[in-house]
Amino acid sequence: MRSFKERFPKGHRPEITDLETFWEADIYNLFRDFAEYILRKYDLRFGIPLWTEKYGWTYRIGKSGVYLVKGIRIEENGFTVDDIEVNDREKYPLLLAHIEEIYLQKKENFLERIAEKNKKQAERNKRRIAGEKKEFASVQAYIVPEQYNVFSWPEKLDIHKLHKLYMLDAKGIRDEVLADEIGLTLYLRCKYGKEDMERMEKGIIRCHGCGNELSGETDFRQCSCGRQYSYREYRRSFRRNNMPTGAAAQTFHAFMRKWNTAESYNEKMVLIDTLLHEFHLSMISGATHRPVAMNFIDGSRTHVDQIINKLSLSMPPK
Ligand SMILES: [Zn+2]
User: Fold this and answer.
1) Span from the CA of 241 to the centroid of ligand 1 (angstroms)
2) Distance from residue 221's CA to the centre of ligand 1 (Å)
3) Which of 15, 37, 205, 211 is the most exposed place for a label (fewest CB within 10 A)?
């Protein structure tokens, strides 16, 4: 068996979900339990791993980009946190006690650093807003309010329909129309998440009125159909709407590719199920980004987490 460092060299940063394929199920489950535990008890998450020459990719846990524990190492048969080697359930309570001790010891300083970081961010925002105001004033005369920044992103999942699909499936009833509808909703969000992101990387936006592409150097964009946009606001709206992109892009691309060729009800259900399984995994491994489910389901993070927890109970085990 190849070591963690060989399996994930410097050029290949592992996602938390990649650990599932690296470890035996026992260890992976232990690690997942740990991730879930620190999230619930301390609101701490695993951050993006850091490369070290000695140990390869190491993990950190913290919040808002401030870390409480660093240098968590991944071994073939477990993981090491501050010299505590965790490779079975017996060692696990030792780890939890250690985390509690660190948390209590460093809590004050940890929360201070987060507050400091947020304060600096607020100052940056203030300066940015002042700049944007000035720019807006220069185009204000051209703006038609009912045509300006009217956004319509592909719709999100209707969670009641998803529930219904699972309930029926569990009873052996195949609602092909419903499976198609849900799959297509997921598909369209993935597709526009990918394509619109690629456009925006080139400074181009897609008009939500007519589909035309609008390029240009300035923030203000006018479409021949009458719609008008602020490029910055367009990008913000894309993010606020949680269009699928970023860390889980590979997952979305895979879903799109396979959905295009899926024909039978079974094939489609497997694809929907695989994506939902990903929702659950990303929720508990959280990292610094939002759980994947928020790309497809409306609601606050807590609300979406609850939905996914509930749904995962009715999902067939993976
Ligand atoms: Zn247009």
Assistant:
1) 20
2) 10
3) 211
